[in-house]
């Protein structure tokens, strides 16, 4: 049984998705989806423990041996990402029952769970596979289901956001496909390990360079790297709350994983960072993204949109760590993937609770909501502090490592910038906190009560994680360090 | 010069189609036309894979006695998957356009943007 864990990770949600469509009962669907999401989380944790214990796991799908068959490879890096993605799925599912029934008409609820499970299995598949074309297939499974999920939003802008995401996402995925095609043309293989060894002597080839460009730009579109981020704010702002929570925590992280996998494992450190000025390009994009998007976030009047813009800015921090191309830089980047996943999930979970009660996330409608929904808004505030990077929260740990890695490079202006841009986060989080806690409640707000218990529990689990990983850093830091060493250390 | 052009004619077709498709996606405001452009763009990539898999003088990869050169079937199989993905994307995109038309009363993106800004 344990031999088959890598494939079960993807198969469970993939099979549960059509089952949801057959059993069109909201409660049964919810139960199935919750069980499956917990199961995948358990499998991901088992895989991580196995990898930390015994090293890389490979699994030949259908017993066809690589490089001819599709191979699943689990190492420290993707085991870590698998835990993040499935963990967020597992936390979001219990929350989904009340939130979904509050926001969607009954006939769409089964469809929602079907799409959600497809999206989950797509994201897990991208992460676990060791085959370049397989990445494309899973990428499209997760993307198509997320377009449908976003279009379920109540406002008509959700449709437009979903359409824009569809166009951008498809261009991104097709770019990726071109890149993989060029690599196949040069090497005749699609297996990542095989590609890596065959590409070594080809580092001067223009075609390989073109493939590199297509793959990085294509995934950059899915990852919402500034300035390719324009689809993201609307998609997150108008999607149903549960969808915003899930996508904000997982989708861009998985795309970043693909970028990491390709530039370090497939193309290799020397090709990406010494042959090409990738580090400098990422550094410039990261810094301009952090500054611009944090400033835009400050002027938003809808809290979900504000959080979405802040997500684009936070992607900048992840790229910043990567652009240093050092072990500690990549470690900081991976830590920020993890920490950003838990803090942004917490913030969006809190906004989902608010949206369920007052039907809006506009700043002006939130005045005094903290007095009516103290648990929700306290959770929001703590996750907000984590986003800013206040000591004793998870966000501090990754910012700390980012600053350390900037100093290791001797780039003190970058370190200063990390601290200064954190102050911009103070401004936009404070805007929400001020309105929610210090303004007089309006009549509409006075009528509402605290969010249902089933929604508060997931929120506070995430809030707890934000504090836990602020103190007990050894777990996340060690895994990120092992993954970063495996990526950067061995190729050097 | 002409030899280079003619011997690589498949790449020229691919690049030509790719740029047409990409240009339509970027320049048109009509949502259906954008999807058409997207389709042309994707199709060019399908052609790219298929033409790359062709081995000159190679035949269909069915094992018989007196033939020893076969075309590479793998890119063709990959593209079958990608075509299915393309069909799914197009149908989802068209379904969204229908819903957009119901919600906004238009399929011109600039008009939709105006209405979004007024909200």
What is the overall pLDDT average of chain A? 89
Topology of chain B as a string of helices (H) and strands (E)? HHHHH
| Amount of helix of chain B | over 70%
CATH architecture annotation of chain B = Orthogonal Bundle
- Most extensive interface between two protein chains, with residue counts: A-B, 25 and 29 residues
Global shape of chain A: globular
Spatial arrangement of strands, main beta sheet of chain A: 1-2
Could you spell the SSE succession of chain A in H and E letters?
HHEEHHHHHHHHHHHHHHHHHHH
User: First CA to last CA of chain A: what distance?
Assistant: 36 Å
User: How many helical stretches of chain B?
Assistant: 5
Structural class of chain B: mainly alpha
Low-confidence spans of chain B: pLDDT under 50, at least 5 residues?
none
Number of domains of chain A: 2
Looking at this protein, list some descriptive labels.
heterodimer; A: 492 residues; mainly alpha; 2 domains; two-stranded antiparallel ribbon; 2% strand; B: 119 residues; Helix Hairpins; 75% helix
């Amino acid at each position: 049984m344990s031999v088959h864990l890598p494939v079960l990770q993807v198969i469970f949600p993939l099979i549960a998705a059509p089952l949801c469509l057959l059993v069109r009962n909201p409660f049964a669907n919810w139960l199935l989806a919750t069980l499956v999401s917990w199961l995948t989380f358990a499998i991901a944790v088992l895989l991580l423990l196995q990898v930390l214990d015994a090293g890389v796991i490979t699994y030949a799908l259908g017993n066809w041996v690589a490089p001819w068959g599709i191979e699943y490879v689990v190492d420290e890096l993707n085991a870590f990402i698998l835990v993040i993605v499935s963990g967020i799925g597992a936390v979001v599912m219990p929350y989904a029952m009340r939130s979904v029934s509050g926001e969607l008409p009954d006939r769409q609820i089964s469809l929602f769970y079907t799409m959600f499970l497809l999206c989950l299995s797509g994201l897990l598949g991208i992460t676990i596979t060791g085959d370049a074309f397989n990445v494309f297939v899973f990428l499209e499974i997760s993307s198509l289901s997320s377009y449908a999920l976003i279009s379920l939003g109540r406002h008509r802008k959700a449709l437009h956001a979903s359409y824009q995401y569809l166009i951008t996402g498809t261009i991104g995925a097709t770019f990726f496909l071109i890149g993989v095609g060029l690599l196949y043309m040069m090497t005749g293989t699609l297996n990542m390990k095989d590609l890596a060894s065959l590409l070594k002597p080809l580092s001067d080839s223009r075609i390989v360079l073109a493939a590199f460009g297509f793959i990085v730009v294509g995934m950059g579109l899915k990852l919402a790297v500034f300035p390719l981020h324009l689809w993201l704010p609307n998609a997150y702002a108008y999607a149903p709350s549960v969808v915003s929570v899930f996508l904000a925590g997982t989708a861009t992280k998985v795309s970043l994983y693909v970028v990491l996998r390709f530039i370090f494992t497939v193309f290799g450190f020397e090709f990406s960072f010494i042959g090409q000025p990738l580090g400098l390009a990422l550094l410039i994009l990261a810094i301009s993204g952090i500054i611009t998007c944090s400033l835009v976030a400050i002027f938003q009047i809808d809290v979900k949109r504000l959080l979405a813009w802040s997500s684009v800015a936070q992607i900048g921090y992840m790229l910043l760590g990567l652009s240093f191309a050092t072990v500690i830089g990549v470690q900081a980047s991976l830590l920020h993937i993890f920490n950003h996943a838990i803090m942004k999930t917490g913030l969006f979970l809190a906004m989902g609770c608010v949206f369920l009660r007052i039907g809006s996330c506009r700043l002006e409608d939130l005045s005094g909501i903290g007095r009516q929904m103290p648990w929700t808004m306290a959770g929001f505030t703590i996750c907000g502090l984590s986003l800013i990077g206040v000591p004793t929260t998870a966000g501090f740990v990754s910012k700390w490592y980012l600053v350390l890695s900037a100093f290791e490079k001797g780039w003190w202006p970058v370190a200063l910038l990390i601290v200064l841009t954190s102050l911009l986060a103070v401004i936009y989080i404070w805007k929400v906190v001020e309105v929610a806690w210090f303004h007089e409640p309006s009549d509409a707000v006075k009528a509402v009560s605290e969010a249902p218990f089933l929604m508060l529990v997931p929120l506070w689990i995430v809030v707890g994680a934000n504090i836990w990983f602020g103190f007990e850093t050894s777990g996340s830091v060690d895994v990120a360090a092992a993954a970063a060493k495996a990526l950067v250390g061995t190729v050097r | 010069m002409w030899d280079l052009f003619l011997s690589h004619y498949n790449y020229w077709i691919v690049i030509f189609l790719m740029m047409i498709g990409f240009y339509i996606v970027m320049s048109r405001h009509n949502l259906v036309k954008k999807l058409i452009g997207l389709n042309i763009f994707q199709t060019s990539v399908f052609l790219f894979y298929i033409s790359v898999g062709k081995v000159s003088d190679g035949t269909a990869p069915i094992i018989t006695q007196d033939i020893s050169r076969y075309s590479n079937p793998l890119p063709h199989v990959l593209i079958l998957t990608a075509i299915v993905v393309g069909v799914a994307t197009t149908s989802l995109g068209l379904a969204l356009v229908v819903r957009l038309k119901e919600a906004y009363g238009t399929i011109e993106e600039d008009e939709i943007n105006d209405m979004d800004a007024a909200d």
